[in-house]
Specification:
The complex is a heterodimer of chains A (113) and B (114). Chain A has 113 residues and is an all-beta fold. Helix content of chain A is 0%, strand content 53%. In chain A, strands 2, 4, 5, 6, 9, 10 and 11 form a seven-stranded mixed beta sheet that branches. A four-stranded antiparallel beta sheet of chain A has the order 1-3-8-7, with no helix packed on it. The termini of chain A are far apart. By secondary structure, chain B is mainly beta. Chain B is 0% helix and 54% strand. Chain B has a five-stranded antiparallel beta sheet, with no helix packed on it. Chain B is globular. The N and C termini of chain B lie far apart (41 Å). The model of chain B has no long low-confidence stretch (mean pLDDT 92). Classes of the chains: A mainly beta (113), B mainly beta (114). Chains A and B meet through β4, β5, β9 and β10 of A and β4 and β5 of B.
């Protein structure tokens, strides 16, 4: 079974631009969560989608948004990029069953210049 | 608010010794706790899950304990090897239901020296 796939692996953008990251979950997983990871803050939860609906949201500004498609693939968008948005963005899928064991992709490394 | 603390940012040990990592949580009563391993530039990988009614769980050289009175989990790696060098993250949680995501501690970076 294929794992979680994130594209692209690396991105370089400038301040003010916007960016879209993509995530393909493990087949059969309906829950997709997005996390931001920085050296100072660790792994922080952005939002979770389940059956095309945002089910949970972390404490991030509205510049961060996402969506999920009917095939469970998900995209995350960041508008008006700031220097502080430089981070590793991780997507994780889960069966969303009794336990929320997360299966992570390799991440997208975003650098904002 | 919920708080998760992992004992130290970094832990250095000698090959062959037992590494012990600590995860403490406050303002929370998790039904289970998960441990993940993360290598540089990669996503975390699930290692073990322990439920609140389990005192101890083992998997090969790994052992996890869960003390709901102390609000603490200990993660042990016995006979540690340089290949065990990585960052280890804990995630206390309640059962799924309406929440598919996890809240993670900041992690402990383990370095095993030969």
């Amino acid at each position: 079974k294929a794992g979680v796939t994130q594209t692209p692996r690396y991105l370089i953008k400038t301040r003010g631009q916007q960016v879209t990251l993509s995530c393909s979950p493990i087949s059969g997983h309906r829950s997709v969560s997005w996390y931001q990871q920085t050296p100072g803050q660790g792994l922080q939860f952005l939002f979770e989608y389940f059956s095309e609906t945002q089910r949970n949201k972390g404490n991030f500004p509205g510049r961060f948004s996402g969506r999920q498609f009917s095939n469970s693939r998900s995209e995350m968008n960041v508008s008006t990029l700031e220097l502080g948005d430089s981070a590793l963005y991780l997507c994780a899928s889960s069966l969303a069953g009794e336990t929320n064991i997360q299966y992570f992709g390799a991440g997208t490394r975003l650098s904002v210049l | 608010s919920q708080k998760i603390e992992q004992n130290s940012e970094a832990l250095n040990i000698q090959e062959g010794k037992t590494a012990t990592l600590t995860c403490n949580y406050t303002n929370y009563s998790p039904a289970y706790l998960q441990w993940y391993r993360q290598d540089p530039g990669r996503g975390p990988v699930f290692l073990l899950l322990i439920r609140e009614n389990e005192k101890e769980k083992r998997k090969e050289r790994l052992k996890v304990t869960f003390d709901t009175t102390l609000k603490q989990s200990l993660f042990h790696i016995t006979a540690s090897q340089p290949a065990d060098s990585a960052t280890y993250l804990c995630a206390p949680s309640n059962y799924g239901g309406s929440q598919g995501n996890l809240i993670f501690g900041k992690g402990t970076k383990l370095s095993v020296k030969p």
